[in-house]
Amino acid sequence: MIEKLTLPRQISLPSDQDATGRTLGDEEIRFLADVIEKGVLTSTKGNYVKEFERQFAARLGVQHAYCASHGTAALHVAYAAIDPEPGDEFVTTSITDMGALTPILYQGAIPVFCDVDPRTLNVTAETIERVLSPRTKAIIVTHLFGQPCDMGPIMELARSRNIPVIEDCAQAFGARYRGQLVGTMGDIACFSLQQGKHITTGEGGVVVTNRDDLARRSYLYINKAWGYGDPKPDHYFLALNYRMNEISGAVALAQLGKLDFSVNARIEAAKQLTAALSGIPGLGLPEFGSDYVHSYWKYCLTVDGDRIPGGAVGLAKELKEQFGIFSAPRYIQKPAFRCQIFADQVTFGKSRFPFTLARPEAVDYSEGLFSGTFKGLNDVLVLPWNENYAQQHVDFIAEAVKESISKLKGDVDG
Question: Helix, strand, coil proportions of the chain in percent (round to 5)?
Fold first, then answer.
């Protein structure tokens, strides 16, 4: 029996859904006022989006960066830049947001899901290789929660097959693999500026690449395939309007100057929590080697249900009811392929296109093929996280987790 811990039953944690957990302030207001005073709200005529693109590219050390209206749009742009034929396959993770998947279908291609490492919930070269086929048009690598994938073997595999790699860096600003920033290793990469990301414009996205051919198609796809600046511009192919406006661009530019603070603050707070929770039987903490810099979009625990009764779901319930901490057991409630759009192939009317072009193996979602996915989702507990966590917030979460686990194990009197 251990002594019952004494701590406040509730501390108001900063939230990335409002100002308490964001870095929004005077700089954003000043830039926004300038946009309104000038009255130029379209990025085709203004300067804020262009300046953000220039500074973002320089920051990553890439040749090209283009803003889009949201993260899903950025991914759609990258997929369109690859230019698949109907029925081509994009290998992707089984644990991702639907915004990373539906654009594949809109391009007439087939998402082919691969399994993940149950500890990191990231794809690996091994899980990717299992599902490659002659139809594979691209590999999408998602750096989930801010932890980079093991890019060395992945890029070696992709290069050996001459398959382009798309990095989904929506959750991984500032993360590094072997010293390289995520977004600089693949052929093209995407970032999200959605409300809860490391920096935000509410909604927004960025596409980056060093390949001139992909840059050209990306720029065109964002602009309805209209060749701005060309001698004889035209709408060259089927494309959408995914431009970011100057209001969002002004916020993005101000936010970019705060990115280092946001990333570093999240990392430092994560180190404090890891130290505080180390050594608890049945509780897994983020673990990665010196090759990796994790930028902590969220902080994830792995909960062994055999050692902590109730597992991740039980721990989340205790944290919410006893301490007001809202966490996310399982992250997503089911693998992406279990969603109705894939399970029932609900796409364009009753056509089922492009699934009508799919190989049977490409749409085989048998549970036995995804052991890592189901194990990982069963065990993971995603804690809220942002750049404004101070020591008191980390201490509160740590003690709440400890007390909740003790209660679940029956070590604390009721």
Answer: 40, 15, 45
Length of the chain: 414
Cis peptide before 354 (omega within 30 of 0): yes
Q: Report how far apart, in Å, the C-alpha atoms of 342 and of each of 46, 76, 229, 244, 277 are.
A: 41, 18, 41, 30, 39
- Reading the block at residue 379, the tokens are 């065990």
Distance from C-alpha of 302 to C-alpha of 77, rounded to nearest angstrom: 34
Place of tokens 């993360």: 175
CATH number of the domain at 26-258, out of 3.40.640.10, 3.30.70.2860, 3.30.1490.20, 3.60.150.10? 3.40.640.10
Q: Report which of 317, 362, 305, 385 is spatially closest to residue 22, judged by C-alpha positions.
A: 385
Evaluate if residue 409 carries a pLDDT over 70: yes
pLDDT digits (tens, 9 = 90+) for 222-233: 999 999 999 999
Whole-model pTM?
A: 0.96
- Residue 374, judged by CB atoms within 10 A of its CB (0-12, 13-18, 19+), counts as middle
Q: Per-residue pLDDT tens for 116-170?
A: 999 999 999 999 999 999 999 999 999 999 999 999 999 999 999 999 999 999 9
Strand order in the sheet with 110-114: 64-68, 205-209, 188-192, 165-168, 136-142, 89-93, 110-114
| pLDDT for 413 beyond 70 | no
Domain ranges of the chain: 26-258
Among candidate residues 4, 45, 50, 197, the one labeled active-site is: 197
Phi and psi at 353, nearest 5°, equal -65, 140
Whether residue 207 contacts residue 56, with contact meaning beta carbons closer than 8 Å, is answered with no
* Active site annotation includes 197: yes
